[in-house]
Amino acid sequence: MPIIAAGLLLAVILLGLAVGAGWLDVADWQVSRALSLRIDESDPAFISFMQGVSWIGGGTPRWIIVILLCGLVWHWCGPRCAAALGCVSLLSNLASSLLKLGFGRARPDLIDHLDHQTSFSYPSGHATSAAAVYLLLASLAPPRWRTLAWTLAFAMIILNGFSRIMLGVHWASDIVGGTMLGAAFALLGIWAVARRGLRQS
Questions:
Q1: What is the pLDDT of residue 200?
Q2: pTM for this structure?
Q3: Burial of 88 (0-12, 13-18, 19+ CB in 10 A)
Q4: How far is residue 89's CA from residue 128's CA, in Å, rounded to a whole number?
Q5: What confidence score (pLDDT) does residue 148 get?
Q6: How many Cβ atoms from other residues are within 10 Å of residue 134's Cβ?
Q7: Domain boundaries, the chain
Q8: What local confidence, expressed as pLDDT, does residue 103 receive?
Q9: Is 150 helix (H, G, I), strand (E, B) or coil?
Q10: How far is the C-alpha of 69 from the C-alpha of 132, rounded, in Å?
């Protein structure tokens, strides 16, 4: 698992370099044009829904959800699982923030942003957090909850990604990079929990 996680981290950096070189500008523009420009034609209820998805995926709501999920996984498999989820959440967020500063990519400007932003664009912090938290959560879920947990994980990752593009605050490559970054940290969390469990058995 650490090797796969390292591969994903390398992919995030390589994608960031490709983004910086402008190799993905056309593809990003086409995706954003197909999604974000249609938001103006959408039902206000749909726009509000996308803003709600984006709202719970970042800022204070995200950390409240993480704390609640840490309590849930503590109930499922003990303090080491809760600690892993908390650490993965914090470290993936820190990594995303540092990479944003390193790459310094500007936000899309195709439409007026429908969500307030103050940071750079690549990689998406929302996508990073969704992948890191919900993939690890699904992996830690007991067998009877696993199907539901994986469904929730994929739903949150997909909805977060689409909401960020449709609201005009991220390019598609930002979402791909953030998802890979979050998945890398989720794998490291799974590995840490499994390794700790083997030591204690």
A1: 47
A2: 0.94
A3: buried
A4: 9
A5: 96
A6: 23
A7: 2-200
A8: 97
A9: helix
A10: 13
